[in-house]
Amino acid sequence: MSDKEQYTDVLVIGAGIAGIEASLMLSTSDRKVHLIEKTSYTGGTVIKFEEVFSNMECSTCMVSPIQQELLQDKNINLLILTEIEEVKGSFGNFTAKIRKKASYVDLQNCIGCNECFEPCPVSLKNEFEEGLSERKAIYVPCAGALPNAPMIDTEHCLRFKGKDCRACQEACMFEAIDFNQKDEKLELKVGAIIVATGFNTFDPKQSPEYGYGKIDDVYTAFEFERLYASNGPTDGKILLKNGEIPKSAAIIHCVGRDKKGYCSSVCCMYSLKFNHYLKSKIPEIKISEFYTDLCIPGKSHQKFYEKMKETGTDMIRAGEIEVTKQGKGMAVKYNNGNGKKSILPVDMVILSPAIEPNDDASKLAKILDISLDEYGFFKEENQDVSSVITSNSGVFIAGCIQGPKNIQDSVSQASAAVGKILSLSR
Amino acid sequence: MEKKIGVYICECGPNIAEKIDIDKVIDAVSSLDDVNVVDRYKLLCSVDGKKFLEEQIKKQGLTHLVVAACSPKQHEQTFMEVCENAGINPYLFQLANIREQCAWITEDKDEATKKAIILVKAAIRRVRYHVSLEKKEIDSNPDVLVIGGGIAGIEASLQLASSDRKIYLVEKTSSLGGLITNYEKTFPSMRSSSEIIKQKIQDVDKNENIKVFTDSEVEESLGFFGNFQVKVKKTTEENEIVEFNVGAIVLATGSTLFDPDEIPRYGYGKIDNVITAFEFEKMNLSGVILLKNNKPPKSVAIIHCVGRNEKGYCSEICCMYSLKFVRYLKDKLPDVKVTNFYSDLCIPGKSDQKFYEETKGKNVDFIRATDLEITKQGDKINIKYKNETNENSLPIDMVILSPAVEPTSDAFKLAELTSISLGDGGFFSEEHEKLGPVSTSTDGVYIVGCAQGPKNISETVVQAGAATGKILSSLIPGRKIEPEIKTSQISESFCIGCKNCISVCSYGAITFDETRKIAVVNEVICRGCGNCVAACPSGAANIKHFTFNQIYQELMEAVK
Predict the structure, then answer these.
(1) CA distance readout (Å), B543 to A273, B477, B552
(2) What interhelical angle do A59-72 and B72-86 show, nearest 10?
């Protein structure tokens, strides 16, 4: 650390589960935290899940208390719709330039009644729901989003395209819509930075053999999560595109593994969770899980697998999988290891794709002056010493941006990053 | 003292005002006992709304406050803060949810109004039985006891120690370092283990804020977060006992390997040259890999998943350390033929598959097999196995068994000492599978490394860091601890001494007073979960702010 002024505030990037955990812990120790999040909501990926393995606990119920705590915490300055643009300095003395995008909704006045959505004449695919439902140009991504902060999508809002529409403003009883809001540029002085920007999933369109995007009823894991979610586009009903209930489903593990060159460590477990999802809604459904190696490490996971096996699901170790259209449904062709080709007709296919770094990982790495590994994840300085330290001594990493991992390990890394900061800068 | 209750109804813009006839609600509750003032406001949670409420409380000299508005999840905290700012105890307040549970779900305005009246009346009746609750503060000791001198314990100690925080590091063997000292290298970096651990041990030795006890065991731990009294026994030197106080405890007691003796078909202990992973690590560390007859093996089989079925879990690291063994073997005996017998290759994470790809190669086979049986065949060993299509056998010189990871034998004793529980596989149970991986049901007791579950060195170090983070953020030198306010209270006169409450308490917060024959709650440990209230047959246990009477009064009004 230099002889420059030492700042104790911490900048946390990403308000997913790791970022929330780190922020709350730092606040407990009386540190001021600036938590920036590029979307309009907290909770990250975890709030897209209905349940989490292996206890099958309701995911939003698990996270919403800490989301609430975060919003009420006076040490935490949550900045939504915010991205980092420049970082200068070193451990103890960083200057971060950030841009907070205008939401055009004054949150001081907005009470979150959602009255402004209905009159908006624009309809768009809702990204939070993986495009399975529609939203307006003024919207919150999902019911129950925290903070309950509507925003205007200026790319599609008629007013921002030059038309004289003020439907949302007229519907608002609280004068919360402010078309004159401007993006804000802020400068933060912080001593340390924690990056917890999460992950993306492999796009199965890159592996055309799975038929994704071409064949109806081939879903990605995230699409299926939203289909099952009680606050999702179908209110939790698992239905085929034609409105019928599927009688059979194939869950395909390891989608993109070969292309990425690593095992994403969570896909087997969440695929087994999907088995539970399907059976709980459609008890008579026939399920086949296609896998290569079952990767269910840890003290509690095999028990979960054993219990799942009792439901009569076929576990098929297979390679060379191909999904094609067949009649009203689909056919899964596969090689079952003895060189024998088999074909299984199914109504629904769920793909479990690999975890990959976020789209903006390389941009962010440049801004933060840290390195990426060969897969594009943020590189830890030394895996044997601690996976939360980077080549820039004041910048720490937590969660899936460092590599694929489950929620527990993400939370551990978040706590460990806080531990490092508190022990290195007392 | 005379009660003066103020009742304020939030219009929540059109949300409540349009769905409920607020004037009718005001009329219906204005003449109730102790109600001093009833009023409506357009948005109570707004800055102006909060100011209005604060002024009202002061101006009207209110003693209790009822707000009818949204869900307590939304704004209970907001209005409790208003009470505090206005000088009344925040627990002399009740929030009636007439938005989510009334306005938003009841179509008919008359019905909604009727329901709102009931909810507000119930809140008024309840608040009359509220009592002031005060924050408590207790002194805390920032020092930490770390049990286990392996990499996890060492890492935690080094990160925690400072001039205002002493660390007591207790190790049951005669030296620090733990299991890792037996390994030549660690995967996947293949860095020298001794390089990693030796420097850290030196750092511990040099650190004057870390007191190391080798050949020692923890005998007793009493107390709670911030204030534990600990007894440590030196197992040498005539069992000398040392006593000290700490504020937190880190359990980093590591793991041991499943004993392959339990599965006779592996031939361990009966057939020469069938050795465990641990024995192989030691052999490799000694510099030469030799058979019993002092000749180097020409062929070696590594058997994964030994004990997996018996233990009921995948130990996560065995595939990777088995691959590391292939590297060891190829380093020392380039021509040796190595055959891996595995069931599922478990190599999660971004670096492990690459390690596998780089380990595969000439004279390294991977056979997915079941029903392995190891027998003696002349000078050699024979492995019988089933693969996907048929039965086979393979003659081999040496067999290395890769057994499951299991908790150390003292886990049970330590769990009892610290009032935490053992869960899946007999490992220490974390407080929450996802959100509390290193915390436990006992506040101030943390679990890290393989004592919590099988994991690799990197994850172990992360957990040590995670516990450090928990302790550094919550146990700060000179700062007092604020325990839960809404705790259980057990009435001395009603308690029949059945001890039901003690058996259901997850936090070890209730003890039995043998002289008075009653259960006693330690309010510093209690977290107000209510288990004891449900279990108490005599109605002696109550949670503050959720007492029988408070709930009864509210309910009676609602169902009247």
Answers:
(1) 37, 31, 13
(2) 30
Structural domain tally of chain A? Answer: 2
Look at A265 and B349 and tell me if their CB atoms are within 8 Å.
yes
Which residues have C-beta within 8 Å of that of residue B34, sequence separation ≥ 6? B2, B3, B4, B5, B64, B124, B128
How far is the CA of A226 from the CAs of A10, A150, A237, A238, B29, in angstroms? 34, 20, 10, 10, 45
Instruction: Give residue B155's pLDDT.
Output: 96
At A326 the pLDDT is: 92
* CB pair distance less than 8 Å for B433 and A422: no
What DSSP character marks residue B336?
-
Q: How many CB pairs under 8 A join A and B?
A: 207
Tell me, yes or no, whether A221 and A340 share the same domain: yes
DSSP sequence for B486-542: S-EEE-TTT-----HHHHH-TT--EEEETTTTEEEE-TTT-----HHHHH-TTS-EE
- The ipTM value here is 0.95
pLDDT digit string, tens, across residues A185-236 = 999 999 999 999 999 999 999 999 999 999 999 999 999 999 999 989 999 9
How many folded domains does chain B comprise? 4
Q: Is B76 on the interface with A (CB under 8 A)?
A: no
Q: What is the pLDDT of residue B38?
A: 97
3-state DSSP call for residue B180?
Answer: helix
Q: Which of residues 234-253 of B touch A (CB under 8 A)?
A: none
Please indicate, yes or no, whether residues A320 and A410 belong to a single structural domain of this protein: no
In this structure, are B204 and B324 located in the same domain? Answer: no
- pLDDT digit string (tens) for B251-310? 999 999 999 999 999 999 999 999 999 999 999 999 999 999 999 999 999 999 999 999
pLDDT at position A108 is: 86
Closest CA to B322 of B435, B399, B378: B399
Residue of A nearest to B13 (CA): A173
Q: Which of residues 398-427 of B touch A (CB under 8 A)?
A: 423-425, 427
For residue B88, what is the domain's CATH number? 3.40.50
| Residue B182 structure tokens | 């037996």
> In which domain, by residue range, is B157 found?
144-254+408-474
What is chain B's mean pLDDT, rounded?
A: 95
Interface of B with A in 132-161 (CB under 8 A): 159-160
Both tokens of A176, joined, read 């919360």
CB contact under 8 A, B466 and A299: no
Q: Is B466 on the interface with A (CB under 8 A)?
A: yes
Residues 131..160 of A with a Cβ closer than 8 Å to B: which? none
* pLDDT (0 to 100) of residue B233: 96
CA distance to A306, B318, B405, per residue, from B258 (Å): 21, 12, 6
| Domain that includes residue A413, residue range | 10-101+183-198+358-424
Which residues does B199 contact at the CB level (< 8 Å), separation at least 6? none
CATH number at residue B205: 3.50.50.60
Q: Residues A336, A384: one domain?
A: no
Do residues A413 and A364 both lie within one domain?
yes
Predicted structure pTM score: 0.91
Report the percent of chain A where pLDDT is more than 70.
99
- pLDDT digits over A16-47, tens only? 999 999 999 999 999 999 999 999 999 999 99
Query: Between chains, do A62 and B425 touch, taking CB under 8 Å as contact?
Result: no
Residues A298 and A392 reside in one and the same domain: no
| DSSP secondary structure letters along A181-228 | ---EEEEEEESEEEE---EEE--GGGSGGG-TTTSTTEEEHHHHHHHH
A333-379 confidence digits (pLDDT tens): 999 877 789 999 999 999 999 999 999 999 999 999 999 999 999 99
A82 close contact with B: CB closer than 8 A: no
Looking at the structure, tell me whether residues B420 and B374 fall in a common domain.
Answer: no
Residue B487 has pLDDT above 70, yes or no: yes
